[in-house]
Amino acid sequence: MSRAIVTDSAAFCDQVASAIRAIPKRTPSAAFQAVLFYTDDSNRIRVAAGGPTGFVDRDVIGARPLDLEPVCLAIDAGRFLSAARSFRLDDWTIEPNPQDPGAVLASGRTRFTLGGVTPEAHPLHPDQRQAGGSASPVYRAGFPFADTLIQAGLRAATATDPKAYRYALAGVLIDRDDSGEEFHVVGTDGARLVRDRVATGGPVADWVDPERPVVVEPGLFRLAAGVVPPDGPLELTTDGTSFVELQSLGNLVRAGLVEGRFAPWRAVLEKAAGTPVLAITDDEDRGRLVEAVRLAAITCDRSMQRDALLVEIAGDDRQHWVRFRNRAERGESLVTFAATAAGPATRPAALVISADALLWGLEQIGGPFWWETDGVHSRFSTPDGGRDVLVGGYTDPGYSGIGEQDPKSLGLGLPADAEPVEVS
Asked: Which of 33, 49, 70, 300 is 20 to 30 A from 272, comparing alpha carbons?
C-alpha cells in the first residue's frame, strides 16, 4: 500500500504550502487543483503543484514512506492543508482512499477522507512531464548563490505592469551581458525601471537569441523565494520560447515566458544618465532621507493631482541639503534633509517627482548610492554599478502645488533612435 507518515507536521505543512501557492485560481483542468505526492529514485517524498505554465516540484522533510512501495497520491489541494494543519501532534498518516481517487489522512481517532485524481493522470506526474517535454534547444546558466538572482527578480517585479498587453512590461527580463559572465535582471512599467547585475558561476557561451529576450512571469521569483535555499547554487534553464526553470538542491520552480518586445532598457538608462547631484554614503543618511520624503508626502493630495514633491538639492564640500516641498488643499509641507556623512560635493538641482515613486526608488536601491538627474528623471546607482533604479518625473511643478497647475508626466522617455515603447 502506498502510505506515508508525517513525523514533523509543521515543517511538512509549510513546505507543501509553498508548492500549493503555485496553483492558479483558474486552471484548464481540474487535475491541476490537486497536489501531487510521489517518491523519487532515492525513495524520498516530493510534492508538485501548479498550473499548465508554471509549477513547483520540491522535496519535503518531515515525511517518509511507511512501506516499501513508492508513494504516489494526488489529493485535493484546497482541503489538504486545512485537514493536515488540524492535527496537533506529529506521526499522522496519509494513505490511498480504497474507494476513489484521493487519500485518507488519519491521526488517532481523527480521519479525513479527501478527494483527488488518479496520480498517473496528474499533469505534473514525472511520466506526464517527460512525455510533454520541449522540442526547442535548452539553454543553461549557473549562479553560485540562488538568493542573488531571486532577490534581483523580486526587485524587478515591483516595477512591472501586470496590465500591460501590447509590450512585455508585465514580465522581468533576464538578459545576458556581452561578457557572458553576468546577467541583467530588469523590470519596468514605462515610468519606473530597476536593473540588477548578477554574476554567474562561470562564462555562459551559448544563450538565447537576443532578438527573442527571456522575459519571465514575475511569479517565478515569488515562488522561488519560498522554495529554493538562498545560499545554495542555482541553475537557470530555458528553451527561450515557453518556459524558465530555477533548480537548486533538488527543488524546482518553473514559470512561463511573457510574449512581446521588451523596452530598450539600455537606451533608457543611457539617456537618463544626468549630472550626479548627491551622494548618500551610509545607511543612516539613507534612512533619514526616506523619513524626510515620508514627512513631506503627508500633504500630498492624489485626488487633486498634487501628489508630487518639488525637490531642491544644494550643498558644499562639508554638507549636503535636500529640501522637499508640497502644497495642496490639506496644507503645505516643507522638510529639509541634511546629510551628515562626508561625500563628494553636491551640485545644485531642482526637479518635480511623485512622492510614491521617490519612496519606491529609495527602497529598491538600498544602501549607499549616487543620485543623478537631468532635471526630470532621477537615477539612483550603487557605487559598484551593480544596480540602477530609474524614476520618471514631471516637466512642470504643478503636481507639487508649487507654480502653475499644468503638470506633464514624461515617464522614462526614450532616445529618438530607439524602438518605440508606450510610456505614461
From this structure: 300
